[in-house]
Amino acid sequence: MKYRMIGAARVSEIGLGAMPMSIEGRPQDESRSIATIKAALDAGITLIDTADAYSLGDADDAGHNESLIARALAGDPRRDDVLIATKGGHTRPGDGSWG
């Protein structure tokens, strides 16, 4: 894996885009998504992209992707080496659309 510096952080040139783990068509078994995140870490990936809008679009599911990543990294000693790139302020209107 190749890495670059972003400020003082050493970050993999390849990142994991986590959006498909939380939107329509996402895996029904969350353990598959967590295994994917762990496999990315095993491969040397230290950049994970997420957003608060990555969800099914209803209020009960808001922030699903960020919470999923938090659960995957909980207790993992590599979590301090991971840079989470997130975006905020764009929420889904609640009808499943992207607004």
TrEMBL record:
Residues 13-93 form the NADP-dependent oxidoreductase domain. Gene3D superfamilies: NADP-dependent oxidoreductase domain. It comes from the Bacteria. This is Aldo/keto reductase. It comes from Streptomyces xiamenensis.
